[in-house]
Amino acid sequence: MSAQQQYDEIGEAYEGFKALPLEQYAVVPSFLALVGDVRGKSVLDLASGTGFYSREFKRRGATEVLGIDVSGEMVSVAQQLEERDPLGARYEVGDVAELRPIAQRFDVGLAVQLLNYAQDIATTERMCRNVHRSLKPGGEFFLLNQSPDFRFDGPTPEKYGFLSVLTGEEAETGPQVRTTALLDQPVSFVANRPRREVYEKSLQAAGFSELTWVPLTVSEAGLRAFGADFWADFHANPPLEMLRCRA
User: Fold this and answer.
1) β strands within the chain, DSSP E
2) Helix or strand or coil: residue 139?
3) In terms of pLDDT, which residue wins out, 110 or 102?
4) In 102-194, at which residue ranges do the beta strands (DSSP E only) sit?
5) Average of per-residue pLDDT values in the chain
6) d(CA 111, CA 59)
7) CA atoms within a 13 Å half-sphere pointing along the CA-CB vector of 62
């Protein structure tokens, strides 16, 4: 099943991911802190899903936000949320591997769980080139991915709301993984887990520089809510990792 088909089926349930402990207390605060101050900047949100980060960065002062996702259902949900609470974020359906030329270039690019849907290295590089073409010289690109070092035989993120298992299939970029969000009605999706060098070589081939891997951290709110011991498995085997680079 393609990424588009998977996310068309998930639809609005995707919004519920942000209430799970891993997202609420580690992923979201870490990614927002990594991107930092966007006041006066334009933001291109690729694999924007239902628009969570598009909306958040528009609230934080971004001058323009364009969210692009391969799933028409996801984009429809994002547009409905924009209609309910107008912020000025725009959304459109698009495949980053075949990204249309965008007239303007953006200051900031976001890619939350994007490159893991490329089926091979050539597609990964094409995605990266399309992003690079869409950013201003010196613009920053921020990515959130499953950690290339996650150990499937190590502590799991189950207590934090997610479960990741190998499917037994292997893509050119890395092993195929089924991730399940443990909502009241669990939601699963299948993607690849690219090797670290796949990210690095693809981004560098596209013209990005200053590549820096950045770990997630648990917020103070997460420590207060659950205590430090609760997060021991997270620290022992981080399920996700961030990456920043410059066009």
Assistant:
1) 42-46, 64-69, 90-93, 106-112, 135-146, 162-170, 175-181, 187-192, 209-215, 240-246
2) strand
3) 110
4) 106-112, 135-146, 162-170, 175-181, 187-192
5) 93
6) 19
7) 28
